[in-house]
Amino acid sequence: MAGRIRQCVLSLRNSDRKKFVCYSWKRLCASTSAQSLPFVPQSGDATEEDVAQVEDFVSKSKRLFVLTGAGISTESGIPDYRSEGVGLYTTSKNRPVQYGDFLNFAEIRQRYWARNYVGWPRFSSFQPNEAHRVLSRWELAGKMHWLVTQNVDTLHYKARSTRVTELHGSAHRVLCLSCHHKILRNTMQEHIKALNPDWHAQSLEMAPDGDVQLTTEQVEGFKVPECQKCGGVLKPEIVFFGDNVPKHTVEYVFGRLAESDAVLIIGSSLEVYSGYRFANKAKEQGKPIAILNIGKTRADKIAQLKICARAGHVLPKVQIRS
């Protein structure tokens, strides 16, 4: 496209070139922007009416409860599992590790940490997008009472939100399953590197929790660090598939929900019960529910408002009113 632009520019009079270049550059940037969202499923642009409805819903709330899922982070370049056509369940044979397998099999822990070690530099570098930043501004404005995220990417904290509960934990922390000592994931990276100075592997695939795909041959020889306090098994402080969200976390979130007057769900299909339970409880409490998500969700039938569009396209246009 850039070559065609140059040929067209050379054929124009000097007085027309500037206007043409500006117009064509905007077209090129728009095209590049669209191509840079490979993990966002196709959807139509939100209409002015869509934005107005979200704006009206948010503005009527005085203590808004927000629940976010993987769909808010796909615009930052992190894939999800379930999105139609682009989710990893569709595009890859890679599957998340099961909690029981991680606990019971040393070879599963070896494979997990080898893949996570390779993926960590890229995963930890992802940055919040405009949807994350909008929610942070809503908090500063006193509009958002609490935010619960199903994501483990810490992007809400990077966007400077503070009233946040990470429902499924954070990939940025590591926990010893024996003595419960915690370290930062960056510290774990240093321990792994020191224990495996000559081990190297590469992979282009990325999962929502930072996992990548490696062959059995690539994993061979990889050594997994033990807890430096007690020698126990180290695990990311995230809720693996097959595990349960800690009871105290669930109770805490129910408390924040009880204090709220409306629920906005962003970027989540709510197929996992750990998130759906809060939508269901909101219905029981008579709280209005709005959903901003590409594709169907488990809570569509109980929502008063459903907008099928990108969060990064809708939220920046919402002007909250007190």
UniProtKB/TrEMBL annotation:
- Could you tell me where this protein is found in the cell? Mitochondrion matrix
**Could you tell me the superkingdom of the organism this chain comes from?**
Eukaryota
UniProt-annotated binding residues for NAD(+): 69-89, 150-153, 267-269, 293-295, 311
Q: Which InterPro entries match?
A: DHS-like_NAD/FAD-binding_dom (IPR029035), NAD-dep_sirtuin_deacylases (IPR050134), Sirtuin (IPR003000), Sirtuin_cat_small_dom_sf (IPR026591), Sirtuin_class_II (IPR026587), Ssirtuin_cat_dom (IPR026590)
Q: How is the cofactor bound?
A: Binds 1 zinc ion per subunit.
Q: Where does the record place the Deacetylase sirtuin-type domain?
A: 41-322
PANTHER family per the UniProt record, alphabetical: NAD-DEPENDENT PROTEIN DEACYLASE SIRTUIN-5, MITOCHONDRIAL-RELATED
Similarity field: Belongs to the sirtuin family. Class II subfamily.
Give the protein name, as stated in the record: NAD-dependent protein deacylase
